[in-house]
Design a protein that fits this description.
By secondary structure, the protein is α/β, with parallel strands linked by helices. The protein folds into three domains: 1-156, Spo0b-associated Gtp-binding Protein, Chain: A (Distorted Sandwich); 162-326, Rossmann fold, CATH 3.40.50; 353-418, GMP Synthetase, Chain A, domain 3. It contains nine helices and 18 strands. A hairpin with a 4-residue loop joins strand 15 (353-356) and strand 16. The longest helix is centred in the middle third of the chain and has 15 residues, at 255-269.
Length: 421
């Protein structure tokens, strides 16, 4: 079964908590704090695997989670880092953020190259790091950084040099079968090909190249009609296109109209796709009426090659032209990530923000959040440190600027206090 689209959930590991510990040994006076650091959480890593051809495995497992870092211990022992989770996908898989944004997070187009999509949480520091000349016995440590969870869309776009496109029953699969070692299903009815097929064209002179036979395109495919986006998804990777048309018109579609429809659907789906180099393979020249249509096509269009996939006529001339054009085309089409490093991109945060509301003064900010993470407010020393921090960082001064007086309520994240001078 060919599966080229699926949704999964990934979660990095949270960091282990730092340890609060003091060295207490006989004959060792003033041992001091010796709490170890928490271990780092595991990363979420993707690897493009040449041994995989579809996303079928993800139909049975959709949740992937890295391990959590182990908490630190006394005697300066650091916790063990959590194991990474490694997710293997076929080469050519696009990783998007699920939801309305649909941002591209990674393009797995390079085989065996690992991509860290989400980094695990950093481990918290133990209380050994917070000892100073003034505060020699800190009774707090940092908690580990939390994990991150993402819902992802995996979208496989086959990597091929040449894409065969055309209306249903134009002869794409037959052309692929005679030009390569591929053995696609062939029959005389619409939509014989329901999944893409790949084959390698081997040249006596020049470089070999990969050809993809893409399911038949119908009017409205750019809006999802028929096989719609299932077809167009794989055309996006190709470096150039071969329009395969029925030159004899046995499907009661004029060849020029067929080419016009292909142009319009590709352009509606992607302007870049419509700009790819192309040649036209006028197929079924062994049937009556093909010669007259080919003359009309050559009067209006360039790069028209008369072929018959059924009798193997004109195939070499067609692929000689394709091989020559490929020399001028760029290599594999890469979809650049919308975010270079997703796990590191965070909005710019101020140390603190003070907002006056009808009921209270609200204090938030990254610096305040970090401080609360390693301060034990239940102890007298911890609460005194909290007060000094608020005064030294200018938070109290800012509150007074906004009109704070004795008895007013101050809310710091989930904590509430009444201010008194």
């Amino acid at each position: 079964m060919f599966v080229d689209y699926t949704t999964i959930t990934v979660k990095s590991g949270s960091g282990g908590n730092g340890c609060v510990s003091f060295r207490r040994e006989k004959y060792v006076p003033n041992g001091g704090p010796d709490g170890g650091d928490g271990g780092k959480g595991g990363d979420v890593i993707f690897v493009a695997d040449t041994g995989l051809a579809t996303l079928l495995d993800f139909r049975y497992k959709r949740i992937f989670a890295a391990e959590t870092g182990v908490d630190g211990q006394g005697k300066r022992k650091s916790g063990k880092s959590g194991a990474d989770v490694v997710i293997r996908v076929p080469v050519g898989t696009i990783i998007r953020e699920a939801g309305q944004s649909g941002r591209i997070l990674a393009d797995m187009s390079t085989p065996n190259e690992p991509k860290i999509l989400i980094k695990g949480g950093r481990g918290g520091r133990g209380n050994q790091h917070f000892a100073t000349a003034v505060r020699q016995a800190p009774r707090y440590a940092e908690p580990g950084k939390p994990s991150k969870e993402l819902k992802l869309v995996l979208e496989l776009k086959l990597i091929a040099d040449v894409g065969l496109v055309g209306l249903p029953n134009a002869g794409k699969s037959t052309l692929l079968s005679v030009a390569t070692n591929a053995k696609p299903k062939i029959a005389d009815y619409h939509f014989t090909t329901l999944t893409p097929n790949l084959g390698v064209v081997r040249r006596n002179f020049g470089r070999d190249f990969v050809v993809a036979d893409i399911p038949g395109l119908i009017e409205g495919a750019s809006r999802g009609a028929g096989l719609g986006h299932d077809f167009l998804r794989h055309v996006e990777r190709t470096r150039m296109l071969v329009y395969v048309v029925d030159a004899a018109g046995i499907e009661e579609v004029d060849p020029l109209d067929a080419i016009s429809l292909l142009d319009s659907e590709l352009k509606a789906y992607s302007e870049k796709l419509a700009e790819r180099p192309r040649v036209i393979a006028a197929n079924k020249t062994d049937l009556t009426g093909a010669d007259e249509n080919i003359l009309r096509m050559r009067e209006q269009l360039e790069d028209v090659y008369a072929i018959s996939a059924a009798t193997n006529s004109g195939i070499n001339e067609l692929f000689d032209a394709v091989s020559a054009k490929l020399e001028e085309c760029p290599e594999v089409v890469i979809f650049e990530p919308d975010l270079e490093e997703y796990s590191e991109v965070e909005p710019e945060q101020k140390p603190f923000t003070v907002v006056k509301t009808d009921k209270a003064f609200e204090v938030t900010g990254a610096g305040i959040d970090r401080m609360l993470g390693y301060t034990n407010l239940d102890t007298e020393a911890g609460f005194a440190f909290f007060q000094r921090y608020m005064r030294d960082r200018g938070v109290i001064a800012r509150l007074k600027e906004l009109g704070m007086t004795d008895g007013d309520t101050v809310r710091v994240f989930d904590l509430e206090f009444e201010y008194y001078e």
